[in-house]
Design a protein that fits this description.
Layout (H helix, E strand, L loop, with lengths): L3 E4 L3 H13 L3 E7 L6 H5 L2 E6 L10 H11 L3 E3 L9 H9 L3 E2 L4 H8 L1 H10 L15 H11 L3 E5 L8 E4 L5 H16 L4 E5 L5 E9 L5 E13 L2 E7 L6 H18 L3 E10 L2 E8 L6 H8 L3 H9 L16 E8 L11 E2 L3 E2 L6 E5 L6 E2 L6 E9 L2 H14 L1 E2 L6 H9 L1 H4 L7 H9 L1
Parallel strand pairs: 1-2, 1-4, 2-3, 4-5
Antiparallel strand pairs: 6-7, 6-8, 9-10, 9-12, 10-11, 11-14, 12-13, 14-19, 15-18, 16-20, 17-19
Helix pairs in contact: 4-5, 7-8, 12-13
């Protein structure tokens, strides 16, 4: 096992990793930008290293600075968290080349799944169904028109190197396709340095279902059930829950086993998430995230398994600490992503935190790096807290979440707590009757 781990991230996820390390007796090194010098993950780490100015490309995306920080601090491993460099295959390679362990999957799998076209091809090879669309990159608008006519409108134009809901354009009819193709290609080139696009059938009202997997370096792979991440705004997840209200026991067991077998065939190690669109009883592979997910606490609450601890152990070469038969699903969990945004305009709301009071009580968890007096910087992602609650069933979970949201106080900035209160009070959500466009329709109806 490692004696010291460097955490190449910030905010709540850096603190989450730090806590797991502390419970394992592992010393931690926090890296931070100049603007994050007083951040909670820096305050609680055993040691810290400033790696550059506030802009992410000069600090949290600065590979030489991060590797140098690991070397001077004597860290034996680097945990990338999520976002930033977590799915950068070259970063994983460089870390390993310097004799430091990368806490995550092999770089070959990061690279494979980071290329959406290659990932689709591999998914087919592994026996997973994909959404109907082009077999590979679409060279031009003429080819896109032919494919769209074959599979039928509406279609999505998607950047092969895209991610996080970016690089996606909906085209409802042929008249809009050419302009959309040019615009999306330009955006993909600017945003990802790769203008490659592919065409995919647009499913009208699917749910977003993802399967959590974990594998070791000895060929063992298990799944830890599904998460329903269908409550989204502009392809960004807002609320996640497990188990999904849309699936029955037979369906979740079948898709979980299918994914676990696919990942075993791939030779995947460490944790990862395979994401699907689910409609009319069919699961369509869309992508795989080769890292820890923002919403991993939902799975931890329903299985009792510490995924970050497992990640660290797996990276050290240890086998999985449990078998598929050991995984027991208990009750229901829901996570609300609280962001520093205005609920009317969704404009970012950085600023100084005044009163800060987190909810408590049985089965209530808050993952956050906030504290009273802390200044939320305008530089990074607006996620500031994750409220996760667990109940013996979905109704108990909903009641507990409603109560917890009422207790949650963050003064000084605008937050999306009122949005979550409205969502929990909505009858469609209470019935589990929603899809990936449900929230956007709801917000549009309020305008």
């Amino acid at each position: 096992m490692f004696d010291k781990v460097l955490i190449a991230n910030r905010g709540e996820i850096a603190l989450r990793i730090q806590r797991a390390c502390r419970e394992m007796g592992i010393r931690t090194v926090a890296v931070h930008s100049e603007i994050d010098a007083n951040a909670m993950h820096v305050r609680l780490a055993d040691e810290s290293v400033c790696i550059g100015p506030a802009p992410a490309h000069e600090s949290y995306l600065n590979i030489p600075a991060i590797v140098s920080a690991a070397e001077i601090s004597g860290a034996e491993a680097i945990h990338p968290g999520y976002g930033f460099l977590s799915e950068n295959a070259r970063f994983a390679e460089i870390v390993e080349e310097h004799g430091i362990t990368f806490i995550g999957p092999r770089s070959e799998h990061i690279r494979l799944m980071g290329d959406k076209l290659a990932a689709r091809d591999k998914a087919i090879e592994l026996g997973l169904q994909i959404v109907p669309g082009s077999e590979g990159e679409v060279e031009n608008a003429d080819e896109a028109e032919v494919i769209a006519a074959e599979i039928g409108y509406p279609v999505l134009l998607k950047a092969a190197a895209g991610g996080g809901g970016r690089g996606i354009t909906l085209v409802r009819d042929e008249a809009d396709l050419r302009d959309a193709f040019t615009r999306t290609q330009r955006e993909a080139e600017a945003g990802f340095g790769n203008g490659a696009l592919y065409v995919e059938k647009f499913l009208e009202r699917p749910r977003h279902i993802e399967i959590q997997v974990a594998g070791d370096l000895h060929g063992n792979v298990v799944h830890l059930g599904e998460r329903d991440c269908s409550v989204q705004r502009r392809h960004q997840k807002v609320v996640e829950e497990a188990p999904s209200p849309a699936l029955n026991a037979a369906q979740r067991a079948a898709i979980g086993d299918r994914v676990a077998q696919a990942m075993k065939k791939l030779g995947y190690s460490n944790v990862g998430t395979v994401e699907f669109l689910y409609e009319n009883g069919e699961f369509y592979f869309i992508e795989m995230n080769t890292r820890l997910q923002v919403e991993h606490p939902v799975t931890e609450m329903t299985t009792g398994i510490d995924l970050v601890r497992e990640q660290i152990q797996l990276a050290s070469g240890a086998p999985l600490s449990f078998t598929q038969e050991d995984v027991r699903f208990s009750g229901h969990a829901i996570e609300c992503r609280v962001t520093a945004e205005n609920v009317e305009t969704f404009a970012p709301s950085p600023g100084r935190i005044g009163t800060y009071h987190v909810p408590g009580g049985m089965s209530v968890r808050v993952d956050s790096a906030l504290y009273a007096g802390y200044t939320v910087p305008p530089t990074y992602d607006s996620l500031i807290a994750k409220l996760v609650v667990h109940g013996r069933n979905r109704n108990e979970c909903m009641m507990r979440l409603r109560r917890a949201l009422e207790e949650f106080v963050i003064d000084g900035i605008d937050t999306t707590i009122p949005l979550h209160q409205a969502l929990i009070a909505n009858q469609d959500f209470a019935n589990g009757d929603y899809d990936v466009k449900w929230l956007e329709r709801l917000l549009d109806s309020d305008d």
